[in-house]
Amino acid sequence: MANVLVVDDDQNLSRMLGEQSRRMGHVAATAATLRQGLEHARQGDFDLVLLDVQMPDGNGLEFLSGFKEVASAPEVIIITGKGDQDGASKAIKSGAWGYIEKPHVIKDLNLHMMRALQYRSEKRRAARVPVVLQRQDIIGASAALNHCLDELAQATMSDVAVLISGETGTGKELFARAIHANSSRAVKNFVVVDCAALPENLIESTLFGYEKGAFTGADKGMSGLVKQADGGTLFLDEVGEMPPQTQKAFLRVLQEHSYRPVGGSAEITSDFRLVAATNRDLEQMVGQGSFRTDLLFRLQGSVIHLPPLRERLDDLRPLADYFIGKLCERYGQEDKAFGADFVAGLAAYHWPGNVRELAQTLEHAFTAAFHSPTLYANHLPEHIRILLAQSSVRRTQKRQAAAGEQDGQTATMLPWRQFRDHCEKEYLRNLLAASHGNISAASRVADLSRTHLYQLLAKHGLQ
Ligand SMILES: Nc1ncnc2c1ncn2[C@@H]1O[C@H](COP(=O)(O)OP(=O)(O)OP(=O)(O)O)[C@@H](O)[C@H]1O
Ligand SMILES: [Mg+2]
Question: How far, in Å, CA of 343 to CA of 317, rounded?
Fold first, then answer.
């Protein structure tokens, strides 16, 4: 149960948010102005503040740090009528837990509140001096990777469950290991459960262990992976592949913190920290009914999304230096230089296999350039060179097509003088026809002197 303060001048919404909080088992108070809200926050022991932006006595974002500085240091979720990117970024930078736009508040509030409160309780439980993050060979310098490292550092400060998402080869397992290594659990086991590789009939006994005699061949009992992770970290890799039956059993473990081994009657406890990884869209799977929504809630206490390598090209060079440096060291070679075409080739390729593919590619290039002090584009694997060549052909064709299209559109255009003369002659013809060859009438209609009109008719050979 948590103490929630709703600061919003919209009475209906305020009442509704209060009720929604109470339905979740919390105690809620409300304030209709920022000053009243701050006053309540100073006097009360609030865990969470739901803060509106446009208030009668000012902008909620300006007061955010004031709320965070009161003795109970509550988490703050911004609820705004008009969402804008600047506001969202300002809110998050000032330490807000989340930012919800009013039209989505009913749908999104529960999840935001659950996460913020879980984070808060774990932060309190694990209140200890934050350690300097050991990067565990996580290489890169892009803003996107640094953002992920910040999230990693934050996750190591509590026992909150972490969900790491990202395409294949983006470093999900590397991050999971780094979370463990930087946590207070580092001295205990890091246990990997590969949900994609476990055969369905063995999954429960592998996870939860079994008692002697539980099935044919079980002549002695065995503790499962969940028990091995006691005091340490349990890493559920490819969690999207977990069969529905196991999702249900696992949810129970997370809720009850205890489970029964196969064929056993006694409940066993295991105090593990959960980290899960996926390259699938779990929200979409929930929508399709293939992943349990309650399990997803439990997994995503904190979420780290690792962007694909092609979206963080600033990491390419440091990664290439790192991998080639390691290879040179392994084979006792001097450092190798990179030709400009080699670097351009790396940047132009789209790296569907991300960092893993980059490491393999560099190993290939290193071998191809074994005796050369410099790596050139022609040391890259053939399939990459073919793709680079094809995309360069496509670019040229596109340029040509664009130029051709332009030609097609302009082909019917005349030079200005020619066009003007053409129109002038056309006009004079119509003028003569309309005035039945009467020059006085024609010069009146055209508002030209008779002399000027005669000159123009002569110019175009008209009578
Ligand atoms: N930022 C990085 N710095 C150094 N090495 C990295 C980095 N990211 C990934 N790697 C390396 O790339 C390889 C793939 O990483 P990892 O196994 O963590 O990826 P993954 O996201 O779990 O992939 P998959 O979804 O295929 O399991 C590993 O050898 C890892 O050490
Ligand atoms: Mg992996």
Answer: 8
